[in-house]
């Protein structure tokens, strides 16, 4: 669900003033969060297996303990990655572009990127827990609502109406 919402926002960035800069920055943010998401996805996959095995074996207390560990790992991972991004925000953009304007804009986007990374870390862990507990359908509805009913309209409001440009579109995600 979420991938298409990101693509929609990137396409919409082409309608903003200075579309080359705005789409470049959104593409960098999307690429960075996508690369990062492999970590929380792996944590979530592990959580799914562990929680489902413990619940299937009739060990709800052990499953609850696994949930705690996974949430702690998600929080710790978010802190580590966000700290890294904040410390290197002025050079992060050079991994993608030599254009000073793009690099400077990315440096300004890093705090928002850290919020996204932190949310992804928890979402990855919690979605694995939900899958392990047999709540896949609920997770799908939450994702659908969060990205399409709330995220895209909020991004449009912030990006276009409040003129926050790429920052506003990204805040909607």
Please describe the structure with a list of short key phrases separated by commas or semicolons:
0% strand; xenobiotic transmembrane transporter activity; mainly alpha; 173 residues; signal
Structural features, described:
The protein is mainly alpha-helical and about 170 residues long. The protein has one domain (about 1-170). The protein contains 7 helices and no strands. It has helices at about 1-15, 20-55, 60-85, 90, 100-130, 135-160, 165-170. Helix 1 (about 1-15) packs antiparallel against helix 2 (about 20-55). The mean pLDDT is about 95. GO terms for molecular function: antiporter activity; xenobiotic transmembrane transporter activity. Belongs to the multi antimicrobial extrusion (MATE) (TC 2.A.66.1) family.
> Roughly what percent helix?
over 70%
Strand content: under 5%
Radius of gyration: 18 Å
- Integer count of domains: 1
Which word captures the global form? globular
Mean pLDDT: 93
Low-confidence stretches: none
N- to C-terminal separation? 12 Å
What structural class should be given to the helix and strand makeup?
Answer: mainly alpha
Largest sheet: none
In quaternary terms, these chains amount to single chain
Tell me the total number of β-strands: 0
Give the H and E element order. HHHHHHH
Number of helices: 7
Provide a short characterization of the protein structure.
86% of the residues lie in helices and 0% in strands.
